[in-house]
Amino acid sequence: MTEKPILRALAGDDVWPPPIWLMRQAGRYLPEYRAIRDSSGGFIARCMTPDLATEITLQPIRRFGMDAAILFSDILILPWALGQDVAFKDGVGPVLSPIRDTAALDRLDAERVAGATAPVLETIRRLRLALPELCTLIGFCGSPFTVACYMVEGGGSRDFCETRAMAYGDPGLFARLMELLVRSTTDYLSAQISAGAEAVMLFDTWAGMLSPSQFLRHVVAPTARIVDALNARHPGVPVIGFPRLAGLYAGLYAERTGVDCVALDTGTDPARAAASVPDGVAVQGNLDPIALIAGGAAMRTETSSILGALRGRPHIFNLGHGILPQTDPEHVAELVGFLRSH
Description:
342 residues; alpha/beta; TIM Barrel; seven-stranded parallel β-sheet; 17 helices; 52% helix; globular
């Protein structure tokens, strides 16, 4: 039986107080990260330089003693590795060459992924040697639907209209893109596990903007295929799924995908969602990142409410979305201390 608190929770153990890590815990809110950012190349270069990516991943572990480290990378590394033009522009965010027709899709090549992501796998190998004994290393990918949103749209969007219109209006083309992403995501996560990731997470940031039928088709079904394939290749390695904005569909998602843990977003009532999640499936979340910015009594009250709602079942404490850049690191330290004081 592992002694690592995160892996115990993912195996269905009710660990108290619950272990903690935070989405985007390595990044722009930390001054030590900003020092690296200001003296290095672009974002993709940082992800693809093992010395830098290892150091950035370790920064919040050194500072806060988190129970898990999540690989410093991005969900758009996969489309970049497939051959799509991807850039991260200050003040704009990700910019991609849109995939809107067969010709654009045909230019992508799954055979490129292994070579292009080799530096990421080297980072994982280094992290396994550098992390504290009880700290779990989490690898990740974006889920196929969310990654498809950026690939089709060409960047961020309020409604991802082009992507959703393709799913309805050109289902054959969209199915080809999703099939490519399911296979590539499975292979990439499998490679991360082989390199040393002890658990993996699928981020489906835009899952909740779909209709019920489309949610089943483009979120649940692809995730289930990935989880099944990973379980076959790597028995016992847990998978965390994050169907953001899915609300009370979290229980259905957990039941039909086979994930070991379902992460809840900020707007989901943890008690009601947990009641719908099958016994033995862990729940992760779901403090509002704005409460973390506020800190103090407001943060402690919200944290206590979540702890009360999820007491008695496997729970990993986390945010309902990623840490925001304006977060004071002292508030993160306060949160970790308050949680562990229980």
